[in-house]
Amino acid sequence: MTSFKVLETNHPRLDAIEKVTGSATYASDVYLPGMLMCKLLLSTQSHAKIVSIDVAEAEKIPGVRAVITGQDYPEVHFGSGGLRDRYIMPRDEVFYVGEPIAAVAADNEIIAQTALDTIKVLYEPLPNVVNSLAALDPGSPIVHPDLPSFEGYGFVLGGDNVCTLLDADRGDVDEAFGKCDFIVEDVFQSQGINQGFLEPMACIARSEPNGRLTIWASTQGPYQVRSQLATVLQLEISQIKVIPMELGGGFGAKLRLAFEAYPALLSIRCGQPVKLINTREETFTLNGPRLPVTNYIRSGINNDGTIMAREAYTVFDVGAYLGAGPNSGVGHGLGAYHIPNYRLRSYGVYTNKVYVGSYRASGVADMTFAVESHTDNIANKLGIDPIDFRMKNAIKKGDIAVNGSPLPSNGLMETLEAIKKTLNKPDAGSDRGVGVALCEWRSGSGPSTASISVNEDGTISLLTGSVDISGSDTSLAAIAAETLGISLDKVIVPKRDTDLAPFTGPSGGSRIIYSQGTAVQRAAEDTKAKLFLLASERLGVAAEALICEEGMVYVQDNPAQSLDIGQIARLSLSSRGGPIIGTASLSNMPYTPVFSTHAAEVLVDKETGQVKVTRYIQAQDVGVAINPMSVEGQLDGGAVQGIGRALSEDMQFDPQTGEVKNASFATYLMPLAIDMPNIEDILIRVPAEDGPFGARAVAEPPGFGPPAAIANAIYDAIGIRINDLPLSPERVLSAINGSVTEITLNVHSLKQAEQ
Amino acid sequence: MKKTVSFNLNGNAVQILTESYYSLLDTLRDDLQLTGTKKGCDEGDCGACTVLLEGKPVTSCMVLAHSVHDADVVTIEGLASGQELHPVQRAFVEHGGLQCGFCIPGLIMSATGLLMENPEPTEEEVRLAIGGNLCRCTGYSKVVEAILAAATKINGSKGGRS
């Protein structure tokens, strides 16, 4: 391995002191003079026409400064997931229980709430549909009859309630199924999931005297908030400044415009700053969660253990609006395997529920649960060890991936080998079992920028537009420090806003280190070239003869001939080229896969159905660990989120109205410290062909593996296969007692509809 | 209606006019602008608002401000002495026991309360003590590691068992 000075060493985060002393400022911590509080009136109807909203009484209450409804916004369709299918606030029709239909700004929250209670809404109920499979039936109520008129970008509309249809095909699937030795067919279902960020959504909007708007936001995507806010308010982008505050967890939920438009319009109306903080209940009922997914999967296999054909049909419930793309790609129906013939389809289906949002590679955890449970079913039929079966069918370097690119070098096989070496098979009959899951993802791409200026004392200021998530600022600083041969404490990463920093894509989809990190590395290379140019003039040697290390630029053959970076910066002030600034900009990065193998060891209590995860291991190919402590933090946190998805987390919806029934942390059960094992992380390092110093993306795959690894471990322990998440004590116990829910998906009618 | 409440906050006597229905959390944040204590749920479920009341960790959203009259309250802002971090804070920094950081003030207060009562906890005792503190980022592994390391450090400096 290349020897690094800064990378591959544990570094405390640059902002750690602020975070442990309580001085880090989140959006809800911003208090401004004259600040009003905003509260939202929420729809009580699942699907209804709004006949009238009477706010006259609310406006008369002392301390109420402004009241708005959907009619107060410009009549413009907007979309947050690739389809312009909604208004920022409904004008004349509501589509789910909990949809905001009016907003009040008042001197305090109590007055605002009192005002809301006086608003009279007259509804005319319309037929609704809550279940996504029912919404596929011919004759189902149609959520959005005007779907064909919605402007979309990049998706095929399936018609009726199908707002997106993705496909991927290769080979002659029907012939391959006809020729193979046997076929395995399964249907899986996974549940609605809340992102569970600890900081409720919060924002403050202030209408400035010069007509601009300032937004203090809790967001992963300040530039996305800016452009979407400009759309819904019909302002110029240049009229809006978004200041991303410390982010108290997002996991995809805070990638786009959320509720910023409500305080924004209220502030424009009354000229005072307006603050909105969601209650915890609202973070469940009106902030786009993930919704249930049904997966039909069928494979044709030869007796030698080769998978010859695959069909996968996936139905994503997207709720009332396409709040996020339906999933991160239909290709995940293949898993990490080379399968010569396949037919993959995924459907995004409208229902009258809170609209779907993003969460840590949306949809891939659901698909990994299905594919990797199914993979074990095949291995069991063949009587082959599940790890050996995966090794036999795993996609290899040079195979054409589902995206059409040849697979670059990767550490897939090494992750399987590492788990095989570590895993111990428990004694038969002990109610203990082990299970594995193989996960696949790609490093995220998208617009990325960086700018570096060199200060007179040899420090650098690194300006990026990306929001820090989970220590990404520290890792970006480490990449700059490594490139420039300086220590990490010489890098300043200033707080920024959309006026100050260059445009960049949102912090999500595992793109910051890979894409933004590449921009930082290139900006540092640019800076280095400029430092060398000036140093070569002063030292009288060719720039090619110079290297930089430990804050010095010196002649490789004669280290005594040197300048420190601070000296060069001071010289630059009066040089021909002026002060030194290095920049870089890029939009797309090549395909770089990420693979990991997960293993769970469980103990099943047959009396209660309780599943205890006694050991959890994951081996992930990270390429290079920029900051190992931070990489492990991502792996640990992702795995525990995945264990929650596997065992206990479950958004419950009223079957008639679609209303969220368990909108609190007391009833939506996220993992607690006492329930969790210590997560064991094995870092595999097969450097990526692209990416900074060979680093791959890290953050998404850790959440994919647990549901399948744990379901497979339960099967190993007690011989019972459960296809329905979560694997709660109730469900496991009824499975032990012989009652397993049969899940069906009418693939035949989907195929017919396609023809 | 606003009424006056007096208590000892981070070692200083305070007297504050606050709404009778305010929780201690709202008084700390809205009246005293001590925003280090976080509001994650306002229902006593997440632990982000944990402070020490008479040396014991409590969720401050579940305590009425007027009920702490004359009591001793310590918040995250009261742990460090000047630039010198409390050993628990220092351990969270060094062991990477934080990511987004929103739950961290509450976790640090729970951990500090634990170590005051039980200076040499086992891993299981640590996990139990922070059982009321939800964290969505870290998966708890490095948090537990940090608290155990802080215990070792505190005991080491007292000449106790390391």
Largest sheet of chain B: 5 strands, mixed
Under the CATH scheme, which architecture of the largest domain in chain A would be assigned?
A: 2-Layer Sandwich
Strand content of chain A: 15-25%
Distance between the termini of chain B: 52 Å
CATH class of the largest domain in chain B: Alpha Beta
User: In this structure, how is the largest beta sheet of chain A organized?
Assistant: 7 strands, mixed
Describe the overall structure.
- The complex is a heterodimer of chains A (755) and B (162).
- Chain A is an alpha+beta fold and 755 residues long.
- Chain A is built from 18 helices and 28 strands.
- A seven-stranded mixed beta sheet of chain A has the order 3-6-1-14-11-12-13, with helices on both faces. In chain A, strands 9-17-16-15-10 form a five-stranded mixed beta sheet, sandwiched between helices. Chain A has a four-stranded mixed beta sheet with strand order 18-26-27-28, with helices on both faces.
- In chain A, helix 9 runs parallel beside helix 16, helix 12 packs parallel to helix 13 and helix 15 packs across helix 16.
- Chain B is of the alpha+beta class and 162 residues long.
- Chain B folds into two domains: 75 residues, Ubiquitin-like (UB roll) (Roll), CATH 3.10.20; 71 residues, DNA polymerase, domain 1, CATH 1.10.150.120.
- Chain B contains five helices and five strands; from the N terminus they run E-E-H-E-E-E-H-H-H-H.
- Chain B has a five-stranded mixed beta sheet with strand order 2-1-5-3-4, sandwiched between helices.
- In chain B, helix 2 crosses helix 5.
- The mean pLDDT of chain B is 95.
- Classes of the chains: A alpha+beta (755), B alpha+beta (162).
- The interface between A and B is large, with 57 and 57 residues.
